[in-house]
Design a protein that fits this description.
By secondary structure, the protein is an all-alpha fold. The chain contains five helices and two strands.
Length: about 190
């Protein structure tokens, strides 16, 4: 069979291919909602942990803190406090993920018109966080809650502005291709 010859898939394999094509199409159509939902859950559960601690539900709260250790350093004095307990994400991470969620919601309003942020401009969005983080890491100074929040927010907004237009374009092509293929199946 040549490289240009089309192989016919039948039976169970065909059903699996159609199922996978439909799943990819569903993701391509709803990627932004899924990303925003994920970021909302990530931020929301970080805020739920101290609420649970304050309510005396320490076991589920500790489970959340433990889970967040996978993505956050858990240096408690760099966390916001709710009801006297730290959030599960530190201030910078909460600002990053929260701003990704908010910028993702805003992206939905401008997705057809927004062009990707050029790389040099993206560096301007991330440079403050890098400077703040490295000077703190090397012990030259201790960052403040408001610097961690501002620099994390700049990073999150810049990342959405850079990446989401590319995601929209690429997944738009996937949507178009799969809609054409699946419309012929019936």
């Amino acid at each position: 069979m040549s490289h240009t010859a089309e192989a016919r898939v039948t039976g169970r394999k065909r059903e699996m291919v159609i199922f996978l094509d439909r799943a990819v199409l569903a993701f391509a159509r709803h990627w932004l909602a899924l990303f925003n939902l994920f970021m909302g859950m990530l931020v929301g559960l970080s805020l739920v942990a101290p609420i649970l601690m304050g309510a005396g539900w320490t076991v589920p709260a500790q489970a959340l803190y433990l889970a967040y250790r996978l993505i956050c350093h858990q240096v408690w004095w760099r966390h916001y406090l709710l009801f006297g307990y730290p959030t599960a994400l530190d201030q910078r991470s909460l600002a990053i993920y929260g701003s990704i969620m908010v910028a993702g919601l805003a992206f939905d309003l401008v997705r057809a018109r927004l062009r990707p942020l050029p790389w040099p401009a993206y560096l301007l969005f991330i440079a403050p966080m890098a400077l703040d983080g490295f000077t703190q890491l090397f012990g030259w100074r201790e960052s403040t809650w408001w610097l961690r929040t501002i620099t994390g927010t700049l990073f999150g907004v810049g990342t959405v502005w850079l990446a989401y237009p590319y995601m929209e374009e690429g997944l738009g092509q996937v949507r178009g291709d799969l809609e054409r293929v699946l419309s012929g199946i019936g």
